[in-house]
Structure formats: structure tokens, C-alpha cells
């Protein structure tokens, strides 16, 4: 396994299911991984206005539904600041509407931590805390910041969101299964999605501009 999650997991990476380990092994010189499947998505009604605003930067979205066609693309590259990174684009196809949820996961080698930059411009940064449970990759969020260019403003608890993502592989159906929940201390559950998909590897010569995040030269303070 290579890539940003190996850096964060260390020896625990060996405990991942081999398929999950392969999925998160995307390095800077590797081909792209493409997952295709369906999701069940729900969101809190009182959060709809906020979620609409987040669609401007491909963060979250207000739609919900069952059997929503889903595609996830992951590609490794190196940021403008020289950090090893994996960019992820999640695409949800609702009736007549396509939504994206983008993130850039960066390994901070200097401080030994994993960071996630959310949305198309990475305006929200969060520490990630991955662990392995029975072959499943479990990722939770930690401290968060609002990113304004090279300046990071800490988000206090009431404004920050808690995130938990579980990604596992089921031998019985040959599919990846994902369960993601986004919550807030004041607002409660904001959005959740769960579903399954298969994955293929596709050759790439460069990272498409739609997946590359430019201008990320500094990371949040330790």
C-alpha cells in the first residue's frame, strides 16, 4: 500500500481488507480509481437552505433519495506546496440534477497527520483520524478550520461538523459498501449517505483540471 492513508495508518494498514487497502493505495504515480454504484441519501429539512449554499463550491447538497446513481473518482498527485495528496470527486445523479462532493486529502509529513480540504476550493480544512475495524476503514474528523488563502481560522465546536465514514468490502456480493454521516453539535444530523459500488482502475497520463486543486501551499497550524 502506498499513498496518504498508508502514512496515517502505519502498520495498521495491513489489517485492512485487501480490496479496501487497494482502494486507498492511490499514489501520485498511479492510475485513477473509478467506483460506480447507488446511494441512499437523507438530509435534515432544516438544513436545506445551508446545503443549497454549499453546492456553489461542490461541498454538500440538499437533495435526497434512494437508489441514486453514484460515481467516485480518486487520483493521487502532489500539491503546489509539494505535499502528497489524493483528490476525490463524488458525483450524485438525481433526476435532472447532478451534484458533486469534492475533497482533497493531504499528508502532512512534517507533523505526521492527515488533512482533508473540502469543496472545490478547499475552503474548509479538517484533520482526519483513520483507524481499522475488522478490515473496515473508519475515518473520523478532528479539528477544523476555515481556509482563507494561506490563512486558517479555527472553527469552534458549535460551528464545526463531525464526520464518520466507514468503507468496507463484502466478499459475498463483490462490492464496496460505504456509510457516511455528517453531524453538528447544534444542528444534529446534517446529511448521511450509504450504499455500494464496484471499482475499476483507469489509465491516466495527467490529473484532470476538474480534480486538481491549485494554490494549496500551506497547511493548518499544528
Secondary structure layout:
Layout: H1 4-9, H2 18-23, E1 32-43, H3 48-54, E2 65-78, E3 84-94, E4 97-108, E5 113-118, E6 124-133, E7 136-148, E8 151-154, E9 161-170, E10 175-184, E11 188-202
Antiparallel strand pairs: 1-2, 1-11, 2-3, 3-4, 4-5, 5-6, 6-7, 7-8, 7-9, 9-10, 10-11
Structure description:
- It contains three helices and eleven strands; from the N terminus they run H-H-E-H-E-E-E-E-E-E-E-E-E-E.
- By secondary structure, the protein is mainly beta.
- Strand 9 and strand 10 form a beta hairpin.
Features:
single chain; 222 residues; mainly beta; ten-stranded antiparallel beta barrel; 9% helix; globular
How do the strands of the widest beta sheet line up side by side? Answer: 1-2-3-4-5-6-7-9-10-11
Largest sheet: 10 strands, antiparallel, barrel
Radius of gyration: 16 Å
Class derived from helix and strand content: mainly beta
Q: Say how many strands there are.
A: 11
SSE order, as H and E? HHEHEEEEEEEEEE
Helical amount among residues, as a percent range? under 10%
Low-confidence stretches: none
Helix count equals 3
Q: What integer is the average pLDDT?
A: 94
Q: Name the shape in a single word.
A: globular
Q: What proportion of the residues form beta strands (DSSP E)? A: over 45%
> How far from one another are the termini?
27 Å
Amino acid at each position: 500500500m502506498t499513498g496518504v492513508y498508508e502514512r496515517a495508518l502505519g502498520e495498521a494498514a495491513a489489517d485492512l481488507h485487501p480490496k479496501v487497502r487497494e482502494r486507498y493505495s492511490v499514489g501520485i504515480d498511479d492510475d485513477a480509481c473509478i467506483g460506480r454504484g447507488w446511494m441512499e441519501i437523507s438530509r435534515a429539512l432544516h438544513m436545506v437552505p445551508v446545503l443549497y449554499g454549499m453546492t456553489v463550491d461542490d461541498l454538500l447538497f440538499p437533495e435526497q433519495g434512494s437508489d441514486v446513481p453514484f460515481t467516485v473518482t480518486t487520483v493521487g498527485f502532489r500539491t503546489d506546496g509539494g505535499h502528497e495528496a489524493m483528490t476525490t470527486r463524488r458525483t450524485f445523479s438525481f433526476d435532472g440534477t447532478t451534484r458533486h462532493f469534492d475533497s482533497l486529502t493531504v499528508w502532512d509529513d512534517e507533523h505526521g497527520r492527515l488533512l482533508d480540504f473540502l469543496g472545490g476550493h478547499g475552503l474548509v480544512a479538517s484533520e482526519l483520524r483513520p483507524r481499522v475495524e475488522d478490515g473496515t476503514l473508519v475515518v473520523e474528523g478532528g479539528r477544523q478550520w476555515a481556509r482563507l488563502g494561506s490563512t486558517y481560522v479555527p472553527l469552534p465546536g458549535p460551528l464545526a461538523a463531525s464526520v464518520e465514514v466507514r468503507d468496507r468490502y463484502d466478499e459475498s456480493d463483490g462490492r464496496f459498501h460505504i456509510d457516511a454521516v455528517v453531524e453538528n453539535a447544534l444542528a444534529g444530523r446534517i446529511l448521511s449517505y450509504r450504499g455500494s459500488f464496484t471499482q475499476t482502475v483507469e489509465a491516466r497520463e495527467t490529473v484532470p483540471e476538474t480534480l486538481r486543486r491549485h494554490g494549496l501551499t500551506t497547511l493548518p497550524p499544528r
